[in-house]
Amino acid sequence: MGVLFDDGYWANVANSMMELRPTRTEVLSLNDATQMLQICCKALTDLIEDPEFSADLSNALSTRVDGDMPLISFLDEFERMERAIAMQSGVNEAAAADLGRSVRAVQRQLSDPIAASELLADTEDKIRLSQKMACKAYRGEISPLESRDNRTIWSRAWSATKGVSTISFNASVGAGAMVYLPGVGDMLVGYAAGKSIESGAGMIGDACRGYW
pTM score > 0.90 for this model? Predict the structure, then answer.
C-alpha cells in the first residue's frame, strides 16, 4: 500500500490547509491562497506519482457499501463517526469537524441518482485533473490569483484534498475504529466506512465542477 493509505500524511495535509482557511468575513489573502495551492499541488502530486496509486484507489473505492437505512436517521451518527475516525488519524478538531459536516453534505447530494452519477464518475481522472489545476494555479500558469475568487480556489483545493483524506482515513483505519455505530443498532462499520469513502469521491467530484 502506498501514499493513499498513509493516513498520517493526509492528516498533516488536512491540518495544514485548515490553518489557512479564512473565516466567513475574511478575504483569503494572496499569500494564503498561494500556500494552500502549494500544499494541494504537492500532496496530489505525491499521490498520483505513487506507483501504487491506481491499485490503491481501486481497492479503496471497492469497499462495500451494501445496506439500506433511511438517510436522515443515518446521517447524525455517520457525521460523528467520521469525526472520530479523522481524529484517530491525527486530524485536529477543526479539520475533523469540517470533514464530518462534509460527508453529511455529500451524502445528501448522493441521494440524487443524477448527482451521484456525476460526482462519483471517473474519480482517478478527477484527482489527476485536480492535481494539474492546483499545480498550474500555484505556478501562475492559469489566470493570476489576483484576478480570481481566491475563496473559490481555496474551496476547490480543499475539497479535492479532503476528499482524498476521507478516502485514506476510512480505508486505512475506519474498519477497525468501531464495531458498531452507537445508536444505529446492527449497522456495521464496514457500511459506514464504505459510505465515507463514497463521500470522499463525491468531494473530489465537487472540486472538479466548473473551473478552478
Answer: no
Segment 116-140, tens digit of pLDDT = 999 999 999 999 999 998 998 888 8
Alpha-helical (H) ranges within the chain are: 7-18, 30-48, 53-61, 71-88, 93-110, 113-120, 123-139, 150-169, 175-177, 189-207
Contacts of residue 64, defined as CB under 8 A and 6 or more positions apart, other chains included, come to 190, 191, 194
* Residue 206 near residue 119 (C-beta atoms within 8 A): yes
Nearest Cα to Cα of residue 102 among 119, 121, 124:
119
CB burial of 170-184 (b: ≥16 within 10 Å; e: otherwise) equals bbbbbbebbeebeeb
